[in-house]
Amino acid sequence: MRRHMRTSAAASVFAAAVLASMGGVAPMSAQTAGGAAGIHTLHVQGNVYMMVGAGGNITLQIGDDGVLLVDTGNGQSASDVVKAVRALTDKPIRYIINTSADPDHVGGNDAIGKLGSTIAGGNVGAGAGVGAGIIAHENVLNRMSAPTGKSAPYPTTAWPTDTFVSKQKELYFNGESIQTIYKPGHTDGDSIVYFRKSDVISAGELFNTLTFPVIDLSRGGSIKGVLAGLNDMLDIAIPKAMQEGGTYIIPGRGRLTDEADLLEYRDMVTIVRDRVQDAIKRGQTLDQVKAAKFTLDYDARWGATSGAWTTDMFLEAVYKDLSKANEPAKPAAVKKK
Amino acid sequence: MKTLTKNLIAFVIAIALAGVPPLFAQGGARGPIDLSGEWAPLFHEDQPERIPGPDIGDYLGLPINDAARLHGDAWDASILTLPEHQCKPHPADYSPRGPANLRIWRDIDHDTQSLLAIHTHISWQQPERTIWMDGRPHPPEYAAHTWQGFSTGKFDGDMLTVTTTHLKMGWIRRNGIPRSDKATLTEHFVRHGDYLTLISVVSDPVYLTEPFVRTTNWVNDPHQLIAPYPCQAVVEIERPQGIVPNHLPGANTFLREFASKFNLPFEPTRGGAETMYPEYMLKMQTMTPVTKAGK
Questions:
Q1: Is B228 contained in some domain?
Q2: DSSP notation for A95-150
Q3: In this model, does residue B187 exceed pLDDT 60?
């Protein structure tokens, strides 16, 4: 079933590219657009908008071919998200790209996805036009589904229909190249999405402006992966004059940013990593690391003592991950004769 | 005729004293003072910090908390060799402190002759600001922050008061003492003939325990020419991806140099609100200066 869904949705990408050459659409001129209650939409640049208020941030790309969403929020506000999209365009929702399997990023897949339609026909198959195509790394599908006979955390209609296992998935939609680039770090399923013509990166949970990075070790996250993702995004981002604007970055949560904001975040995460790494080398325990207040200079900005992701949880994840990396390799098992 | 003149003078004085903005702009009525022009910076205040630059570990007179102190202690000047750091302009609250040849000009609506905005341009890295005077609201929190922030202004008599939000994370001293992107900047511009004074007040819930107040001055210089200031980042030191120069906690060996150089006790160099006030001089007299050997 998975294979079928992947194959058919992959083919729909080609169909979309064909459709891209068809027909004009009303120009998108709004700089900002209000949405439904609690949902706010901000024009970033080019074809890309940022939508806040539905859980994780949602990125919209809108044009002649239709609507592409990066993530769908927590699902509780799905109808308001759709209203906000409709305030901008009446074009069909063609694609959803998930940056991770987090509930506040895939929660609206089902409700929003089934209102959309991919472009069916040809080797895609006539039935593939039902619902928007949902693109994500294979590990996102693994997290959202379950083996036969087990209960999946999400209905099949919310699952990615087009997964990839390579370093990136390419798509040409609404007149621009879109790279969905695999960057595990927060979990083992993260991707960033780069809109090359609009020059906007949708960063998913690798970067947010509210908390220390959420490193979910139980789902394959790592501090090394988070830093690699942040550094790679810095390599992509090019500011305009005076280190301002240029490439914009939509974080997984929080406000709109550019390279300079991402740089401060990368510096902060690196410096904390360096301190914890040094403490581990000196044989300090996790409790000693927490007591040392290695995040003191950033706590009032990024830290929390309560809620879903506290400073202690962040330090513990960094400590455990780095300790794991420092463990001596286990000797290979000796084969019995 | 004499009675009319007296009445007119009394009317004008009354308006000036009350700080009432003009109701009309036909000859006779007066608007708020025009700050436009070319302004050359004066460095009689804080020159050592502003031009050669602050010493490492000099946090004197800053109302900082422990978080800011640790940030400063960890700061390694080599971070400025990273290409991404090289072309950062000074943020709105710091740019007047540097090489700050200043230009001010106004946007006046053609039809209504009302003041829409005041703009500033400063020489080092060419930061430009727009101070909106048309009463527009500040953007929502989810909007991007910029180096110069989003500024709105209003005249209180002849004093222009500017409120700035949406600043990027910046610095209040160029030795690693930070100012967060949660800070608010309040400024008062006052012109006295050929002199311009800026009183700036930084409030930062992340790194400051009290508002930080500074004054900066310029003199009118109608012949001033501000040169371009292009910036191009280059690789100054080849490093692997992701290296961020910093001092580990307790490992910065340069922190006592400032105290040693100026024969000061170490404690005041650590800053804090107390060190802003004159009474602190008395307390300093009870402390032991750091020796030349840094002890």
A1: no
A2: EEE-SS--HHHHTTHHHHHTT-B----GGG-GGGGSB-EEEEEHHHHHHH---TTS
A3: yes
